[in-house]
Amino acid sequence: MTTTNEIADKIAADHGLTKTQSKTIVEAVFAAITSAATSGAETSIPAFGKFKIKETPERDARNPATGATIKVAAVKKLTFQPAKALKDAMNK
Predict the structure, then answer these.
(1) Annotated Gene Ontology MF terms (predicted)?
(2) Contacts of 84 (CB under 8 A, 6+ apart)
(3) 23-49 pLDDT, tens digit each
(4) Which of 19, 37, 31, 25 minimizes the C-alpha distance to 78?
(5) What is the pLDDT of residue 77?
(6) 26 touches 20 (CB < 8 A)
(7) Residues 6+ apart with CB under 8 A from 59
(8) Radius of gyration from C-alpha coordinates of the chain
């Protein structure tokens, strides 16, 4: 697993920044993606992918223990669709 600190450390080493500066940049990028998602906008990062909001409708579900039917509320989910370049890089 890669953490935000590891990403920030890599950026700092590659671009001659301090770890504090690079961590601020990484956190700002994630904050921008979060802000776009909460407002319902799509975020597209070329050669990486798209973050989209998907709405799932309300549905009926069944409690397996009792067999009772319950309503599951509609929700919004954040989905990620990788770009072709990322897919190709993963499958080399």
Answers:
(1) DNA binding; structural constituent of chromatin
(2) none
(3) 999 999 999 999 999 999 999 999 999
(4) 37
(5) 94
(6) no
(7) 71, 72
(8) 19
CATH of domain 50-92: 4.10.520.10
Instruction: Locate the domains of the chain by residue range.
Output: 1-41, 50-92
pLDDT score at 2: 87
b/e code 43-55 from CB counts within 10 Å (16+ = b): beeeeebebbbee
What's the confidence (pLDDT) of residue 1?
67
- Residue 59's pLDDT band (boundaries 50, 70, 90)? very high
CA 34 – CA 78 distance, rounded (Å) = 10
The Cα 15–Cα 45 span in angstroms is: 20
> pLDDT averaged over the chain?
94
Exposure on the CB side of residue 32, measured as CA atoms within 13 A:
9
